[in-house]
Amino acid sequence: MAAELINPPPSVPPALALRMSQQAPRILQQSSGPSLPYLLSLLTASDAPETWIGYENLLLSCLRTGDDRSARMCLEKLTQRFGESNERVMALRGMYDEAVAEDYKALEAVFRGYEEILKQDPTNMPIRKRRVALLKAMNRPIDATTALVGLLDSSPTDAEAWAELADLYLTQNLYSQAIFSLEEVLLITPNAWNIHARMGEILYLSSLATNSNNDGNLMQGLCESMRRFCRSIELCDNYLRGYYGLKLTTSRLLSLPSKTSKPAPAATDPQFGDLAPPSLATIEKLHELATAKLAEIVRRNAAGESGWDGYEQAEVIAARELLDRDAQKVKR
Amino acid sequence: MRLHALLSLASLLPSALAVFADDAYHVDYHHALLGLPQQHTSFFQQPYAGSKAALIYTLSDKLVLGAVNPKDGHIVWRQSLASSDAIKSWLRAGQGQDTVVAAVGSHVTAWSAADGRLVWSAESLSGPVQDLEIIEIEDSEVSAGPKDVLVLFNASTPVVSRLDGKTGQVKWSFEDESGDAPLQVLASGAGIHYVSLHTTLLGGLKIKVVSLDQSTGHKTDQYSLSSESDLSSVDSILFVGANSASPILAWTDKFSRALKVNIVGTKSVASLDIEGKDGVGIDTISLHAPLATNSMPHFLVQIQTAQSHWADVYHIDLKRSLISKAYSLPRVAGKGAFATSTVDANVYFTRITADEVTVVSSVSHGILGRWPLKATAVPDLSDQPYPVSAVSEVVSRSGSAQAVRSAVLFSNGEWALIRNGEVTWSRPEALAGVTAAIWAELPETESLADQLEIESHGNILAAYIHRVKRHAGDLQYLPGWLQKLPSRILANFSGGSTRRPLDGLQKDSFGFRKLIVVATEKGRMAALNAGGSGKILWSMDTVPLTAEEKWTPQLRTSSGGAIAVHDQARGLSLLIDAATGKLLPVDPHVNSAFRHPSTGAAVVSYSLAEGEVRAHTPGQENPIPLWRFLPATDESILDITPRPADDPVASIGKVLGDRRVLYKYLNPNLVLVTAVHRTASTLSVYLLDSTSGDVLYTASHSGVDVTRKITSAISENWFTYSYTLDVSSSSLSRGHQLVVAELYESAIPDDRGPLDTAANYSSFQPAAAPGDVAKPHVVSQTFQISEEISKMSVTQTRQGITSRQLLAVLPESNSIVGIPRNVIDPRRPVGRDPTPAEVTEGLVRYSPVVDFDPKWYLNHKREVFGIVGLITSPSLLESTSLIFAYGLDLFGTRVTPSFSFDVLGKDFNKLQMLATVVALFVGVMFVAPLVRRKQINSRWQIT
Known about the structure:
The complex is a heterodimer of chains A (332) and B (943). Chain A is an all-alpha fold. Chain A contains 17 helices and no strands. In chain B, a hairpin with a 5-residue loop joins β28 (356-361) and β29. Chain B: Belongs to the EMC1 family.
């Protein structure tokens, strides 16, 4: 089984997913040899942990690319090995059922199946998560949020669930709840730079959305957002999203009327209150840094230098667009 | 602390150690010897009437009476008849009798022929036995039963006695009051004749024959033979007796020119000319005649010259009392032996020369059987062995088809049975009477040690090159080693290799294979392979000796696997290669090391001279000794026993039960001197420091039987001696006693005595002020033992960690015991039970009597006769000590005083161990996937 199947990147790009799913017929044919009696089958080394991780990833990429037949076979293999009642297998089966559901009715049938399972065993976490995902897919975000909050009540250290909740809140424009949820995530994984950047983005959005007419609060929000981006850059060098956000927030801060950017030093307490907004010079320096860095990333990525090719193309394009916007401004 | 634990563990080991049944006959070897058999006391004889198989009976020159199985040469039974006043010995057996009668000294003993039990014994108070005969032809009134014995005692008035064959009681005695020297008695069909020699005025000897009545012992007739002209000494008389029907008297004239023969009962003397051939003087003339009563009256005269030998056969005409020559046996170069045997009335002569065996009948000169003689089994480094004497048994079938077996004594001391020319067995009787023995390393071990020596003394590069070269040289053994590897592994697992006797001279990993070089009192040297069942590797005559001389050389190990032999009496020094027996050129400075054999490399050497111990600087004979030790007035020194030069000590202290330490007094220069006062019957023991000459300890015992054996041994920090109390002493106790004494630096535990704080120490002056000696604290104890000890020794191991055993030779029971050290510990509490602390030390309450546990006997079922010395040697295994006892018999074994803790026992099942490993492996093969499956399952259970 290929290494990418056993150990795939955290987020599988579509091309890779396609490549993975194309391997499915070969792998499935390979492993469907005649099965040996129980004791003898033990002696063959096929029962490695990697095999089954591989089948799981294969199943996921097949579902992604619509190769339902191969997905079905993968699922059967996993079911054969771990049994119907294995929670992880149940969740995978649910995922398969969701993927092959043709209409909303079918989805509802799957949902009822979930409810049935949860009635028998309310602690079945994979199915509870699937249920949240299904509700989200069925465009019932409020139900999904309720279900997710219930799930988090029983399992408050599940960072994945908290992040999902933050997303759900964001879709409903509930910024402060989303920020709270992300803060919970950061409590669990304090060094997750992407979460820091995500936090900065939401803070940026919320301050723009809620304080468009209040310069002081807007600045406060933007400063907070900028700090989050700084933290994410601190945790991850050349983090494009972080620099993008940093540039966005700093340019926004610089564009604010300068009088409001003079804070009263006495009003801030570094210990208990909010931090004082940074000085203009600092913001400018940060802006320059972000611009320079973004330009470097874009340039190097375009040149295809080794070590600079991991960026998502969409993000690079967005960054270039942001830089171009600046350049046009200068041209004018 | 670890040492303490080890020691306390060692003290917990059981004290009694046995020779295990599966070790017996595997780890030990025994040459049960008789001594050189004498022609006139050796014969084939059925052990009881009607027995199909005959045994060979012999009374050897060592006065050991033995019965040997002619099939394999094993001794059926042995009795030692050694007596101090014995010069000659006789052994007779009547035809069809179940007893053999032996006479040694003034004792006449009858032994059961089948099992060697004493039937009766008779002792003459008047004088030694001069002759012994069995009365074969019974007078009519005596009923069937053991035949009576006729004995001639050589007293002031010679006595002829007829002893009852059943009880040994005297039936009648005849005293010869004529004052003539008694010669022999003859019992024949013609009656009993008493032959004596009458010295005439001119110095010639006149043979006087007295006829006695068989049933009463009265003199019936007397006559003299006029032999005075040609008979001047007893040595000229060749033969008296034989063939009871016609006993003859034969002597030679002064110049060995004529043989005079008289048929006893007649007065005529026949003179037979001896033709000297090839003009060489005749060395010996011997006469062989059949001994059976009903055999034909024929006899053979053997003539031996320096280069050749031949024989003439004579017939006696009984009716006419004529002796006529029948035929001659041809002259054969070299030396030969003749044996007479009878089958019914026929007489056969067996002639054994160095290269063939021939059988002729006494009637005609036709050769009935001829077999070429194959070389004797043992390689002899001296000249080619030749037969010296022989006894034989002829099987005659239809006149010609014959088989003959002869027990032949060869000149190299091998006593071999030759059956139709083949050597069936041979016994190394030359080794009876070993006076000195020494351990020698195998040449291979020695050469490796030499190589390492070279490497350690060269510079680093040269040593490295030398080593690489040596290893490259060793590569040539690799293919052979690899070839043998599978069979060795297989043998290891089947357990066969440990039982296989080790042969060859390769070294072994346990160091059991060593050589023992022995020197016999007859001037012969031999080497035994201690690891290979005591096989004799070589044997050679080293020093020519006369019959009376006894050779007692000193043996020392020299460099390069050589043994240095030094004979003080003859001023002779030899260097002999231990492995091959070849003589090596003598190094002059090796010789000087001999002058002070007791010390070796010490600063001061000492020797016993003129009744005192004198010390000198080694290598030079000072006119004034460094010190002298004189025992008390009228005491004479019996023996000096030094502490062994190589005596490793594992611990300098003895750990007590409460974890305190009693420091041992370890002085390498200890010498134990035993001296006796012969009139006052006292035994004094002096412990000397051989460097300073200080007396460290003395003890005196009164009422000691000073004529009995007094032996001593010293090792580590203890010494022991044994003696026998005089029967007439005033002491309440009787019997044999063993004294054991231990030396400590101080009586107080954790104290090192006066030497504790001393920064400097001088061996020459152990104390600051003269006379003020730092004496050891001595703890001694006496034990009553059940048997006399004739020789003591102490086991030696490589590091001295193993507890020691006191080895003692018990001459009365012909055995060797190994007494565990803790049994004779002088610190055993007296009159009270041991305290718990003492119990942890392994001390038990003192009981005066030490019984020799049957398990202590190292010789188990074997009987070791006449042991005069006991040497021990460490092996490469710390647990094991090698022992070799010598004397008449040679006996070797190995002992493990603290069990064989460093080697796997024979009962260790290697196959089982292997099966367990395989089973575990298979188990793991099956369990591993199960565990993996479970792990995967649990990983898939969460999330």
